[in-house]
Design brief:
Elements lengths: L1 H23 L13 H7 L10 H27 L8 H31 L6 H12 L8 H25 L3
């Protein structure tokens, strides 16, 4: 969790710019855009400190997702290996990586939605306010908007990461 939290402290400005530019793509025709591109967004966001808008939920999201991925990978892999005829091979690691991703996205999606909304809309007072307003106005399933694209993004990352880690463990075994 700590490594996930530390990584996002460094990456938050880039994530903020990404979210803001994505939000601009949803503006109705005729509404002027705030930014002309990434560099313009970095330079015109409301001061240096504002680049860390949404840091709290972003740290929570990254820490939760990293912890869920790492904690569930071995459990999913062990479960697969209990199936008669299963062997420890690339397919097992592929499935374990996707399983770990499913758990991570399932657990992290609500925090991810709140993080993105706070970064894209400055009308929320704090994380709790964003969570309550989303729940009240859109219902519980609003916290799982974008689940499939997020699953696809994290799934591809997990598959590559866990395959590389497993191969590295095999190479460096004594």
């Amino acid at each position: 969790m700590l490594t996930g939290a530390l990584a996002i402290i460094v990456a938050n400005p880039t994530d903020l710019v990404k979210v803001r530019l994505q939000a601009e793509g949803k503006l109705p025709a005729g509404v002027p855009k705030r930014y002309t591109g990434s560099l313009d967004a970095y330079s015109t966001i409301e001061g240096l400190g504002a680049l860390w808008t949404g840091l709290g939920p972003n740290v929570a999201r990254n820490a939760i997702i990293n912890a869920a991925e790492l904690a569930s990978y071995d459990q999913v892999k062990e479960t697969i290996l209990k199936i008669p005829g299963s062997i420890d091979n690339i397919l097992t690691h592929l499935l374990a990586g996707l399983g770990a991703d499913f758990f991570a996205v399932s657990i992290g999606s609500p925090v991810d939605v709140v993080k993105s909304r706070m970064m894209g809309d400055s009308t929320y007072k704090n994380t709790f306010d964003c969570f309550i307003k989303t729940l009240k106005h859109e219902g519980f399933l609003a916290f799982y908007k974008g689940f499939l694209p997020n699953f696809g993004r994290l799934g591809s990352w997990n598959v590559v990461m866990f395959l590389v880690l497993e191969q590295a463990k095999n190479v460096f075994r004594v």
